[in-house]
């Protein structure tokens, strides 16, 4: 009888990943670059089925303001479950919904909250963006929209049309301030002022080809676009321009909201009060929830003009109210601003040591590192071409070191950090230590975009 060699069975998580690749659509994204199978999570930490632990700086694309499975969120969910309350109620009034709305309005700019209406939309931020567009079109009787280069507002048709990757759209595209690659070649306050003048000129020039729009939508910090905090002065100019021309201003706070940027809402930095604010992600406390809040004079909808089957998610409202209250009571917005500034200082030091870092930027705990080809010639403003290959290598090296990050930006060359607002100083240092180590490893082994030579640190040779 012949002896046969016993082949060890593949670990269970490998089978799960293999079946995912066979059964899920080609549109899957994070699963391609993060081949892990999360089984447990708490705070900043995820444990995979392979037993490895990871520091999660993706946070559900900014959804997890309090990190994974925060006790106040779990308790809020358990309370609803144990109470016997209905979980699915369409748009009916419930104590849970009333508590959520009350807590949300308590956080909003007072001028908006005092005379506001709220619309509960479908479960995703893109549903709320669609609702905002429909709202301003109904209220103004106009059709066109104004949006900005580099924007991201969701994956439904209208939201995509207002995003930076749109190919066929009637939405008017405007320049968004971008210091490192300023379209006007200046950057800084001068570049922001020129962008504002361009916007004003299009609206006031009757031969510009831009009809009076139904609304303007912007992000106070472009996240997916590459982590670009808009200058406060520019945001105030956009508010002045739109208010003077009776154009409703829609602010997309889906990713920037609930303390992420160092203020409870990113518009708080500039002091502007939008006509419509789009909210999702963190407001659901890790569960699906999306709303728009808007000035009552815009509320000209007829009953049923906008609806959604899952707009009555009681668990999400309970988790969201608990999250909002916890962030507010513990001043986590202020904490995010202070810790984010300290992390940005360390990232600046990292940039000083690596020619492959074009720019670091961010606000609060919404940070980005743009990676560039150090061997390429800089343009007139000092910017070098993006290096998406190196960015991918850094992301992979981070994962090898137990750090989960994501990429964004025009060429997917910006390493983005979105840690929970609850991280400690020690955890922030651990994140940056692992990122620095991953960057050092990646620049030693990754060829530049032309394949000519590896990218190296300043003051070193390959």
From TrEMBL:
Pfam families attached here? Aminotran_3 (PF00202)
Q: Which UniProt keywords apply?
A: Aminotransferase, Pyridoxal phosphate, Transferase
User: Which species is this UniProt entry from?
Assistant: Streptomyces nigrescens
Highest taxon listed in the record's lineage: Bacteria
Top-level class of the enzyme under EC nomenclature: transferase
Gene3D superfamilies the record matches? Aspartate Aminotransferase, domain 1, Type I PLP-dependent aspartate aminotransferase-like (Major domain)
Q: What is this protein called?
A: Diaminobutyrate--2-oxoglutarate transaminase
Which cofactors, if any, are listed as required? pyridoxal 5'-phosphate
Q: In which pathway does it act?
A: Amine and polyamine biosynthesis; ectoine biosynthesis; L-ectoine from L-aspartate 4-semialdehyde: step 1/3
Question: What lineage does the source organism belong to?
Answer: Bacteria, Bacillati, Actinomycetota, Actinomycetes, Kitasatosporales
What's an example of a GO molecular-function annotation for this chain?
Answer: diaminobutyrate-2-oxoglutarate transaminase activity
Q: Which gene encodes it?
A: pvdH
By sequence similarity, the record places it as follows: Belongs to the class-III pyridoxal-phosphate-dependent aminotransferase family.
Looking up InterPro entries in the UniProt record yields: Aminotrans_3, Aminotrans_3_PPA_site, Dat, PyrdxlP-dep_Trfase, PyrdxlP-dep_Trfase_major, PyrdxlP-dep_Trfase_small
